[in-house]
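Run log, item B.
One chain of 199 residues. Sequence copied directly from the ordering sheet:
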Amino acid sequence: MKNLGILLSGRGSNFEAIAANVASVKIADARIAVVISNRTDAGGIQTAKRLGIETLVIPSKGKEREDHDREVVTALQQHQVDLICLAGYMRLLSPWFVKQFPHKILNIHPSLLPAFPGLEAQQQAFAYGVKVAGCTVHFVDEELDHGAIIVQKSVPVLENDDEHTLAARILEQEHTAYSEAINLVLNREYRIVGRRFLS
């Protein structure tokens, strides 16, 4: 049984999708060992408590990045986490944090990386006038939205879309893509060649 650690800062809709897929064994041989937030008011923490999952709030406000990261890493290690999933975690991880878990941290981003990294990716895509948007699950490395790509899902941009309708359709695909990526990383042999994820 593999232990997942979830880091979130908000409502955690991707966390909810992962939890549902763990419960229904769509994500095989895994359990969510802990959900950690840097914000006391994160909706995802309340959801995790309701689901009977262990939760921790490790506030980041007023702390140096690496001091906070050390607290989070200690908690993840105490819960013997095999894979970390960022689910709307609104903090950049320090290079030190990433080095503690090489190829063990996943993130989901609402664009087809390498296009539109950073914040407000759906708005960037919509403003740019792209015909196809989507989402990407990737390994986290020391650079923003940069690590090797595991799963991507494309979403057509419709003529009557606005950034909100587009974002909603991308989010639906995120909920599928994240669980697919977790299964690939936990349950398949894989290697990373250059930037390519091969399984």
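Observations after the first pass:
- The beta strands are 2-8, 30-37, 55-57, 83-86, 105-109, 132-139, 149-156, 191-193, 196-198.
- The first helix runs from residue 13 to 23.
Flagged for discussion on Thursday.
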